[in-house]
Amino acid sequence: MTNSPDRALIVSGGWPGHQPLKFAELIGDMLREAGLEVTASDTLDVLEGADDLRTYALIVPNWTMGRISGEQSKNLRAAIEAGTGLAGFHGGMGDAFREDADYQFMVGGQFVAHPGGVRPYRVDMGPAGHEITRGLSGFDIESEQYYLHVDPSNTVLATTTFDGQHAPWTAGTVMPVAWVRRYGQGRVFYSSIGHDPREWENPTVAELHRRGLRWAARVRP
Predict the structure, then answer these.
(1) pLDDT tens-digit profile, the chain (221 residues)
(2) Which among 90, 101, 205, 212 counts the fewest CB atoms within 10 Å?
(3) d(Cα 93, Cα 33) in Å, to the nearest integer?
């Protein structure tokens, strides 16, 4: 089967503190604005249909922590490798399925800490010039400043610099906030912003995420 240019799947669940159902609404609205037909699932069972997964233009994992079966992970990764896009935010994609290294390899990174919890920090655009960030400027936000283990092959779209206030040994560390990468034929977009739905009220955050979803789904901006 080939992927459809007008179908997207959001899979939501896991730790309730990240409000997966609320974020599913926000993500779904952005995808529908892009002309995509959105299917929302609150169970990982939807990942057991290997052939069906490949018909989606985009899959959005929105599932903090939790466990994914070997078959579900294999099916998801096979769909992305075959050309379906993958996009997600914060813990919903970057702290999902901690025991699955193959999933983390596909995403291009994994959450490991957020020193100080929710706190104000600065996000800078770059260093890579990319259609997703064209015309966007850096901004200040109050959220969990994610410290991640990241794949050096990622194309970094935005960064943040740790001040070391809550973990002195991290002072001066420049950490990716958003990136894109390829996984086989699939496009992957990730942003670590998204602890609280109110963060998406920032117009630059909203535009960054809107463009990232469209890019991964191969929808024209």
Answers:
(1) 555 579 999 999 999 999 999 999 999 999 999 999 999 999 999 999 878 999 999 999 999 999 999 999 999 999 999 999 999 999 999 999 999 999 999 999 999 999 999 999 999 998 778 999 999 999 999 999 999 999 999 999 999 999 999 999 999 999 999 999 999 999 999 999 999 999 999 999 999 999 999 999 998 76
(2) 101
(3) 22
Give the Cα separation of 169 and 164 in Å (integer): 6
Q: Could you tell me what percentage of the chain is helix, strand and coil, using 3-state DSSP and rounding each to the nearest 5?
A: 35, 35, 35
Please say whether the beta carbons of 82 and 121 come within 8 A: no
Q: Whose CA is closest to 146, among 106, 183, 119? A: 119
Residues with Cβ within 8 Å of 85's Cβ and at least 6 positions away in sequence, in order, are 57, 58, 59, 186, 187, 188, 189, 215, 216, 217, 218
**Domains of the chain, first to last:** 7-111+178-217 (3.40.50.880)
Which residues lie across from 216 on neighbouring strands? none
Closest CA to 5 of 37, 27, 48, 51: 37
Peptide bond just before 168 cis, omega within 30 deg: no
The dihedrals phi and psi of 186, each to the nearest 5 degrees, come to -90, 150
Global pTM? 0.96
**Tokens, residue 207:** 């535009």
Total residues belonging to the chain: 221
